[in-house]
Amino acid sequence: MAKKTIGKDASVAEKLDALANLQNIDSEIDRIKTIRGELPLEVQDLEDELEGLTTRISKLEEESKELEGEISNRKNAIKDSEALIKKYKEQQNNVRNNREFDSLSKEIEFQELEIQLSEKKIKEGKAQIDSKKEVIDEAKSELEGRQADLDAKKNELDEIIAETQKDEDDLVAKSEKARKQIDDRLITAYDRLRNNLRNGLAVVKIERDSCGGCFNKIPPQRQMDINSKKKIIVCEHCGRILIENPNAQKELEEKEAKKKTTRRKTAAKKA
Q1: How far apart are CA 58 and CA 27, in angstroms?
Q2: Which fold has domain 35-166?
C-alpha cells in the first residue's frame, strides 16, 4: 500500500495537522539537545585547549634540548681552548724571539676571551633552560587540570547521551517519516523558518490571543480564519505558521460572554 502524502491535493487542515505534528516531533528533539546544553562545545573547546598546551610543552622541551646541546658544545669549546692555552704556554718556553712570544701571548689571550664568552653563553643558556622549565611545569600543571575538566565533562556528556540517545534516535526516525508525508514546497518553507528562528518554532499555536512565537496580538477575525483551517496563515510580525489552539474557540466564547454580561450590567445601572 502506498504511503499517503500530504501534497497539493490535500486539504489545508491536513497540511496544517501534518506540519503541527512535525513541529511537535522536532521540538522534542530540540528539547533533548537543549538538555545537553553547551556540553559538546565545552568538550570541543577543552580538547582544542589540551592540544594547544601539549604542542606548547613539546615546543618548549625541544627548545630546552637545543639549549642543552649548545651548552654541551660550549663546554667542549672551553676544553679545546684550555688545551690550546696549555700548548701555547709550553711553546712560549721555546721561542727564539719576542715577536714569537707576543704572537703566542695574543693567541692565549684570544682563547681566554673565547672561554669567557662560552662561560657567559653557558650561564645564559642555563638561565633560559630554568625559565623554560618553570613554564613547562606550569603548562603541565594546567594540562592536568584541563584534562580532569575534560574527563568530567565527557563523563557528564556520555551519561546524558546514554539517557537520551534512544529517544532521540526514535524521534529522528519519526521526523524523517513525517517529512516524507509532506510535499517539498511546505518542507522547504518549514525548514527555512526553523533555521532562521532561534527557538526552532516554525509552527505555533495562538496563545492568549497572541502568536505563540513572537507574542504579538492577533485580531479576533484573523483568529477565526486560523481556526477555520481554510488557508495557511502566517504571523504578520515573525512569519511563523499559525495554527489553532484547541481552547482558543472556547476562550473567545467566554470572552464574548463576559462582554455581554458587562454590557447588560451597565445597561441595568443606567436604567
Answers
A1: 46
A2: Helix Hairpins (1.10.287)
